[in-house]
Every structure is written in C-alpha cells, then in structure tokens.
Amino acid sequence: MAACGLDFGTSNTTLGIGSGGVPSLVPLEGAHRTLPSAIFFAPGRDAEIGRAAIEAYVEGTPGRLMRALKSVLGSALVEESTPVGRERIRFRDVIARYLTAVKARAEAETGLSLDAVVHGRPVHFVDDDPAADRKAEDTLRQIAESIGFRHVRFQFEPIAAALDYERTVTGEEIALIADIGGGTSDFSIVRLSPERHRREDRADDILANDGVRIGGTDFDRTLSLGAVMPLLGLGSPMKRGDLAVPNAYFHDLATWSSINRLYNAKTLREIDEVVRDAARPDLVTRLRRVVEAERGHSLAMAVEGAKIATSDSGQGQVDLGWVEPDLSAGVDRPRLAAHTEDLARRMAQRIGRCLDQAGLTADRIDALFLTGGSTGLPHVRAALTASVPGARVVDGDTFGSVGLGLTLEAARLA
C-alpha cells in the first residue's frame, strides 16, 4: 500500500511521501513543492491548476478561475453548481477535479500508485456547528474515495505540524502549535519528546485542540473592504441621502469564494440601476468595470500582494490603473493593522480557550511553534506571542510543516 500525506489548503496544497522514515514533499508544479489551490476552466481545453491556472487568468485567457476551493466545505455552497462554459459543475466536483490532478502529478513524479491518504483538516471547518463540521469531513472523504484513495484517514492540521516539529526536540516539552492558514487558524497544545515521537497512539499527549474559521483570506477580504472597495463606491450615498450604495456586491467581490457569483447579466443590470441612482456614479462605474471585465480575482490578488508587501517591507500598493488611470490604494502596517486587528484579537482569544481546555497557565508553555503564511503578519505574530510571553518562538516551514507531519503519519499506514 502506497500512502501519502495530503494538505489541501485554502491557499496552497502539498502532498508528501515517506522514504526510510524521512518525509518529503513531492514537487507538484515544476520544482515547486507547493501548489496554489486554484483551477482555471477555459473553453475547449483541459482545466489548468496551480500557478498555470492563475497565469492563464492574468493573461486574459477567456474562462473561469476558482481559488480558495476548500472554503466551500461545510457550507451549502459545496452542493451548488457554478457555470463553466456551457455546463454547470458542482463545487464538490470542482474540488474533485483539482485533487485528481494533484494525485496524478504526484504519482507521475514518484512512480507510485497512491491508494492511501492521511488528509489534513482544520480543527473546525465550521465554527460552533458540529453537524456542519462532520458534513465537511464526510464530503472530503467522499471526494478522496471518488478519486481513487481506498484508505482515507484525517488528522488535525496543528497536530500534523506538531509531529513535524517534534523531530527537532531534544527533551520533553509542552508546545503550543499555531497553524494560521488561508482559511482557518488552528491551535493545539501537545506534550512532545523524542521518546513520545516513536509512539503510534498519541491521544494522551494532545492536551487541547481548538480553532477558528479565520485565515489569510479573511485578512485579504477585510483589507479590501476597508482600503479598496470605498474607491469603487462602498459606503457612498445614493441620491436619496438616507441610503447608501448596496454593499452585497462589494462583499462578494472581496471574498475569494464568492467572486464568481457576480459574473452574470442580472448583476450587471442591477449595478446599472445603482449607477443611475447613486450620488457618486463615478465610483460605482468603477465597480461595474471590474464586474463586466470579470477581473474580480485580479483585484483580490492585488490586495493579497499588497498585504504581503506590507508585511515584508512596511508598505504596499494596490494598483487599480486598469480600472481607471492613476487609481491606486496605498497600504502600510498601521493601516493594515487597523483594518484587521479584530481578526488578530479573535485568533489570540482561541489560545486562551486552548489553555483553559488544557488546564494550563501561559507560563507552562515551553515553545510556540508557528506555521502558515499569515504568521508573517507582524500584528498577528505579536498577538500570538503576547498570549504566551515566556514561550520560545519557533518558526516552522511556513507552507510545508503540516504536509510533512501528515506524511509522517501516512508512513505508518504503508
């Protein structure tokens, strides 16, 4: 039986296999070990995935781009269909097509026929809704089985990250694992040691597990609504002064999984009516240009890029010159923090819940292990470290720790 660890993330996907007890991530796109969780459907062509999907969209190839595919799990949207050319495809079948391509690439790269998988999953697909959470896992299991995995197991993503980190520890310690991904933030408190690492049953070492459906795409969405969408008319008045421009269009446009909902003739007609009745029709006309050109994902990627640039260098720019000459939105760290500080605060609150669940005080945590792209945001990192101020901060493989941990567990199935 050939087993793999599969981290199907909101933003990126990895797949790993173990050889001689050493886990490694399989290159899924050229030399890249990470594959953007994106798929592009173009008329008359096979679907593109990953970077190639994004490039096809950016280059203006006619078709439909979908990103943040994982975010529909646990919602009613997963059973709904979306128009792709002349057909309609259910979102769960879109996920299946994407994961089929991932599996095929890994098998071609390794020469193995993969029939077993340890799938990563967030602590909560859906906050405070156990039934929806179970349904999300069941859906992902069904998809995995439908694409050829005969043996499917799940592991919490922060636990997988803990297994990766545990390979480096030299003595016993209690670690808080923070996995801040594209769609969720997950936390686990785990007792680790070289001796415990050899055990198959680690249930007694997991002291707490919690999470919240907040991740990198939520930071993108909130930043977009705060810094960019007002330039397209969000919050501006209608001619009837006690009303504002309807905000639903802007919320869909700022949310990766909802962007494609706007691309239809009915929405364009509605926006035309808003333009007619708006006190600032020039602003809403910008919104119409984005929707008519089906460039919502271009806008979302520009916001994401500005967020990353701001995190790295202190400043970023959302270039909107393609909407209107010389139009742009500047972002700096104080502005990014102002728009998204509530998200960071809610993440840190989950750490408090984890400590309560484990029956521990913050000073009992020896190490804070950080993984996931959003741990690079300075105000997020500050909120997390302030929750356990005495802990040693360890930076994991930002996009690979979860996949490597899942692969370690998968090796036990082989």
UniProtKB/TrEMBL annotation:
Belongs to the heat shock protein 70 family. Pfam families: HSP70. It comes from the Bacteria. The keyword ATP-binding applies. PANTHER family: HEAT SHOCK PROTEIN 70KDA. Keywords: ATP-binding, Nucleotide-binding. This is Chaperone protein DnaK. SUPFAM superfamilies: Actin-like ATPase domain. It comes from Methylorubrum suomiense.
